[in-house]
């Protein structure tokens, strides 16, 4: 747990001003209906912030109307009806929001251009990628970030969280500028960072944004150090590579210009132990010293530690949850299979292969050693199988991932490394060969299938020794 002193240091001294209230959005959406009502009133004041023009709040306009006039009553009535409509939309899409002055959700990507001046080329890139309608997390998280609000967003795997933070980031930047990195995105694994990097490159195609990912920290020190030309805009990185640069003397990278810091799979970054990144994350926060920096946390699961830290250290926090918190995605058919003993796992695995399955399939095990053992058992079954874990080189891992994406590998054995955020299109089956150690880990594992509304299946083996864990999970969900 971060010490209280460190929490105090990380707390920003300024309070992020609210750019827009809910009433503002209401006025904007009802402006055409109320043109006659407001005729002759004072002109709307405008404030330029980040290239977006904001109007005055509806409450101020109400106060300017006659106290006993029918206009004021009509305006309040329309405001009430509008809020009822917003509540219905949130209920329909299972959007749960906690915070003050939360903007209305957006129901189409076109609204982002009319309301927030999102670049037309970005909208075209969305259409070219076949993305026509925002998902629930995108509906609410995008307008929040467009307002510059700090948030903690929790949504099931495969629900479009990467796009939910990428679009407002591109809208905020507007165009390339030689000011250094203005956006920093932290991912727990190299594979997830690469996926986010590709998504940003695709969305910003034709606009000219310089999106970078740190491949080799030693080369990055020369590229981004004090003598660089600062011709870059967005950086995607894992914590370890970034910390290496920050620890150089002088630092191999300058984060003073960062205006948005996004932490993806934030609960993983807060884990204790050697795989956790809490200490590194604190160092990165301190390095982002811009007084205007805003932060957003995204994850498929939300642990109490993450929520507590965000409430202590983020300004005017808004939390967004889609559906039940820490719940598995509904498009995944889940099956528990009792296999008796450890030896029964291999028998059940071979039975699945013998009966026939529709590849690709991801198989999760608890350790690198078990991944190697299972690989050697299955390589003689006549199927295309490979293994990925932390001890393989980055080139080997990249080759395996690419082969799995292209269909050359039917079965991929992996440790928890790949359970975090990797978007493999069309994974038909996830097999938990070893029982997950926590409910959160289980959710992330099975979330590799059933993505973007597609159906998937997850089978979890359990033995006599796993029954205590199974009972513990059942109590948590009852």
From TrEMBL:
<feature type="domain" description="Helicase C-terminal">
    <location>
        <begin position="331"/>
        <end position="478"/>
    </location>
</feature>
<feature type="short sequence motif" description="Q motif">
    <location>
        <begin position="111"/>
        <end position="139"/>
    </location>
</feature>
<dbReference type="InterPro" id="IPR014014">
    <property type="entry name" value="RNA_helicase_DEAD_Q_motif"/>
</dbReference>
<dbReference type="InterPro" id="IPR001650">
    <property type="entry name" value="Helicase_C-like"/>
</dbReference>
<feature type="domain" description="Helicase ATP-binding">
    <location>
        <begin position="142"/>
        <end position="320"/>
    </location>
</feature>
<dbReference type="InterPro" id="IPR044764">
    <property type="entry name" value="DDX52/Rok1_DEADc"/>
</dbReference>
<keyword id="KW-0378">Hydrolase</keyword>
<dbReference type="InterPro" id="IPR014001">
    <property type="entry name" value="Helicase_ATP-bd"/>
</dbReference>
<protein>
    <recommendedName>
        <fullName>Probable ATP-dependent RNA helicase DDX52</fullName>
        <ecNumber>3.6.4.13</ecNumber>
    </recommendedName>
</protein>
<feature type="domain" description="DEAD-box RNA helicase Q">
    <location>
        <begin position="111"/>
        <end position="139"/>
    </location>
</feature>
<dbReference type="Pfam" id="PF00270">
    <property type="entry name" value="DEAD"/>
</dbReference>
<keyword id="KW-0347">Helicase</keyword>
<dbReference type="InterPro" id="IPR027417">
    <property type="entry name" value="P-loop_NTPase"/>
</dbReference>
<keyword id="KW-0067">ATP-binding</keyword>
<dbReference type="InterPro" id="IPR011545">
    <property type="entry name" value="DEAD/DEAH_box_helicase_dom"/>
</dbReference>
<keyword id="KW-0694">RNA-binding</keyword>
<dbReference type="InterPro" id="IPR050079">
    <property type="entry name" value="DEAD_box_RNA_helicase"/>
</dbReference>
<keyword id="KW-0547">Nucleotide-binding</keyword>
<comment type="similarity">
    <text>Belongs to the DEAD box helicase family. DDX52/ROK1 subfamily.</text>
</comment>
<dbReference type="Pfam" id="PF00271">
    <property type="entry name" value="Helicase_C"/>
</dbReference>
